[in-house]
Write a structure and sequence with these properties.
Elements: H1 2-9, E1 10-12, E2 26-30, H2 34-45, E3 51-55, H3 59-73, E4 80-84, E5 95-98, H4 107-128, E6 133-136, H5 141-152, E7 159-161, H6 165-179, E8 186-187, E9 190-191, E10 199-200, E11 206-207, E12 210-211, H7 212-215, H8 230-246, H9 251-265, E13 270-277, E14 280-281, E15 284-285, E16 292-300, E17 303-308, H10 314-332
Parallel strand pairs: 2-3, 2-5, 3-4, 5-6, 6-7
Antiparallel strand pairs: 1-17, 8-11, 9-10, 11-12, 13-16, 14-15, 16-17
C-alpha cells in the first residue's frame, strides 16, 4: 500500500553516477561574467565548495575575477579558487555550472549563438568531467538544457536547468506576504517554460496543508473576483523591471544556485522547480518529445532524483502541453551536428 502511494507521487528518474570520488566537492563555473561571478561569490561566502574553478574565453577577465575572489576566500576556511581558459583545470568536478552566454538581436539569434557556444564548450566540459552534474543557467534556459543534454550524452537526471527556481521562490514569498505567514508555511510552484509563458500551479497552492482552491475554487483564474492571478503577473513583471534596470537578475539567482549545489553535495533531497526532461508526467504525454521544462524535482547527489507528480487542473495541463509542443518545434530546427 505504502509503495503505491509513493509511486503515485514520485517519478523516479535518477541513475546513480559511477564515481569513486563522490565525496569530492570541486565546482566549476563556465562563464566568468555577471552571473558566473555572482554564483562564485555566493558559493565562497557560504563556504560550500572546497575548490572552485572559473573558466572563460576572456583570459584577462577570468584572471582578474579569480584574484579578486581569492581575496574573498581568505575570510573563509578551505575555499581554493583558480581559473583560466583551459578546460583541463576543471578536471573531475562534481558540478559544472554553465553561465556562458552571448546576447542576440532577438530570442532566435540568442538561441543560435548560445547553441553554437554550447557545441564548442559542452564536449570540453564532458571530456574533463565525465562524472559531473551539469547545471545550465544560460538563456534561453529550457532549450539550452536540452542542447547540453544532447551534446553531453549524460543521463537526463545529470543535466538540469535553473528553470523556474527563482520565480517559484518569488511566487511563494508574494503569496505568503498576502496571508502574513512565513513562506515556510506555504507551498507554491511555478512550472513549465521560463518567462511569461510559465505556469503558476494555482491548483496546488496550500497554506499549512490547506489547499486554497478548496476555499476559493476560482483562485488564479480569469473570473476570480479577488484577482489572485495578478501575483503571477507581478513575478514576471519584477523580472522584467530588473532586466530593464540592470540587464539581468543575479543576486537571488546566485543564492538559489548555491542552494541547488548544496542539495547535490549534501544529498538533501530538497524540492526545486528546475528544468528537467519531461516524459509522461503531470497528465501531459511527451513520450515522443525530448523537451526540458520546469517541474518540481527532488535534487540529490546524482542531480534530479525524482519528479513530483502534481495533480494539475485541465487548464494547467493544457498550458504545459502547449509549451512542450512549442519547445519541440523549436528544437527541430536546431543544428546540433
Ligand atoms: N536562467 C536564468 O534565470 C538566468 C538569469 C539571468 C541570466 N541568465 C543568463 O546567463 C547567461 C550569462 O549572463 P551574464 O550576465 O553573466 O553574461 P555576461 O556577458 O556577463 O557573461 C557571459 C560570459 O560568457 C563568456 N563566454 C562567451 N562565449 C564563451 C565561450 N565560447 N567560451 C567561454 N566563455 C564564453 C564571456 O566571455 C562572458 O564573460 C546569459 O545567457 C543570461 O541570459 C539566465
Amino acid at each position: 500500500m505504502i509503495t503505491s502511494t509513493i509511486q503515485a507521487l514520485l517519478t523516479h528518474v535518477s541513475q546513480p553516477i559511477e564515481c569513486e570520488r563522490k565525496d569530492l566537492n570541486k565546482i566549476s563555473i563556465i562563464g566568468a561574467g555577471t552571473i558566473g561571478t555572482a554564483i562564485a561569490f555566493s558559493l565562497i561566502a557560504q563556504n560550500v565548495a572546497e575548490e572552485l574553478v572559473l573558466i572563460d574565453q576572456d583570459e584577462t577577465l577570468v584572471q582578474g575575477e579569480v584574484l579578486d575572489l581569492q581575496q574573498a576566500a581568505m575570510f573563509v576556511d578551505h575555499s581554493k579558487v583558480s581559473g583560466g581558459k583551459n578546460y583541463s583545470i576543471s578536471n573531475n568536478s562534481r558540478i559544472c555550472i554553465i553561465t556562458v552566454g552571448a546576447g542576440g538581436e532577438d530570442d532566435r539569434e540568442t538561441l543560435i549563438r548560445n547553441t553554437n557556444i554550447f557545441k564548442e564548450i559542452i564536449p570540453e566540459v564532458v571530456k574533463y568531467n565525465p562524472h559531473a552534474v551539469l547545471l545550465i543557467v544560460t538563456n534561453p534556459v529550457d532549450i539550452l538544457t536540452y542542447v547540453a543534454w544532447k551534446l553531453s550524452n549524460f543521463s537526463p537526471n545529470r543535466v538540469f536547468g535553473y528553470g523556474n527556481v527563482l520565480q517559484s521562490i518569488k511566487f511563494k514569498h508574494l503569496l505568503a506576504s498576502k496571508f502574513k505567514v512565513s513562506p515556510n508555511s506555504l507551498h507554491a510552484f511555478i512550472i513549465g517554460q521560463q518567462g511569461p509563458k510559465s505556469v503558476p500551479v494555482w491548483s496546488g497552492v496550500s497554506v499549512s496543508g490547506v489547499r486554497l482552491r478548496d476555499i476559493n475554487s476560482k483562485l488564479g483564474t480569469e473570473d476570480d473576483p479577488e484577482n489572485w492571478m495578478e501575483i503571477h503577473n507581478e513575478v514576471i513583471e519584477r523580472q522584467m523591471v530588473v532586466e530593464r534596470l540592470k540587464s539581468c537578475e543575479s543576486w537571488g539567482l546566485a543564492i538559489s544556485v548555491t542552494k541547488l549545489v548544496k542539495a547535490i553535495l549534501q544529498d538533501t533531497k530538497e524540492c526545486f522547480s528546475v528544468s528537467t526532461h519531461l516524459t509522461i508526467c503531470h497528465g501531459v504525454d511527451n513520450t515522443d518529445k525530448d523537451v526540458f521544462l520546469s517541474l518540481p524535482c527532488i535534487i540529490g547527489s546524482d542531480g534530479v532524483f525524482t519528479i513530483v507528480k502534481q495533480s494539475l487542473s485541465e487548464k494547467e495541463k493544457c498550458l504545459l502541453q502547449d509549451s512542450a509542443n512549442y519547445m519541440n518545434e523549436l528544437q527541430k530546427n536546431l543544428d546540433l551536428d
